Amino acid sequence: MFSNIGIPGLILILTLALIIFGPKKLPEIGRAMGQTLKEFKKSTRELTDDVMKDIDEEKKKLD
Predict the structure, then answer these.
(1) d(C-alpha 56, C-alpha 63), whole Å
(2) Cα(33)–Cα(28) distance, rounded to whole angstroms?
(3) Which helix (H) or strand (E) holds 39?
């Protein structure tokens, strides 16, 4: 997804973010994004575990 951005594009994006949000807001935004990603990973992991558990139970029923 981000393989075509490159270093100059990344610097441009970070500069624009710094101009738009300011230096005080960037850490807050980064922290919020990190927490969101953490929750998303946790949810997908739990969903995968539940599905795998259901599959294992169905296999045991068939045996």
Answers:
(1) 11
(2) 9
(3) helix 25-62
